[in-house]
Design goal:
Arc Repressor Mutant, subunit A, mainly alpha, 6 helices, two-stranded antiparallel sheet, globular
Length: 128
């Protein structure tokens, strides 16, 4: 039983780290390649400092790795499969969550599945 407790604690910690809307969006942006803070900030329409703070937290919890390309710091997911896991999780939020429609889910799935047609992103309804 102790092993189940340890695993549950670690999984809960992972959920806590990715539970912020900005960090979920960062995971999806980083799923296929390493990107720098400026590129991520522009792509997600977020302030650079905010992206840096999220990446720092994600790096501290071993979700992303950092490497250098000249003067640029590139971030990439340590386990890119987490992005697919999040896309699969979209099915769980349709009915229980208020304000999320099937259309919202389809748009997010299309955007996050790599079939990007524009730089528009789905904005969270709150900054909680």
């Amino acid at each position: 039983m102790a092993s189940r407790s340890v695993v549950a604690k670690e999984l809960a910690e992972l959920f806590k780290i990715i539970s912020h809307p900005d960090r979920l969006r960062l995971v999806e942006e980083l799923k296929s390649s390493g990107l720098d803070v400026n590129t991520l900030a522009e792509s997600l329409n977020l302030p650079q400092a905010r992206v840096s703070q999220h990446l720092s937290l994600m790096r501290a919890h071993r979700l992303v790795d950092e490497s250098r390309d000249g003067r640029r710091h590139l971030y990439k997911l340590r386990q890119p499969e987490i992005a697919d896991w999040i896309v699969e999780g979209l099915d769980f939020i349709v009915e229980p969550m208020r304000g999320v429609t099937q259309s919202d889910i389809r748009k997010a799935r299309k955007l996050w599945s790599g079939t990007k047609t524009s730089k528009k992103t789905i904005e969270p309804t709150t900054d909680a």
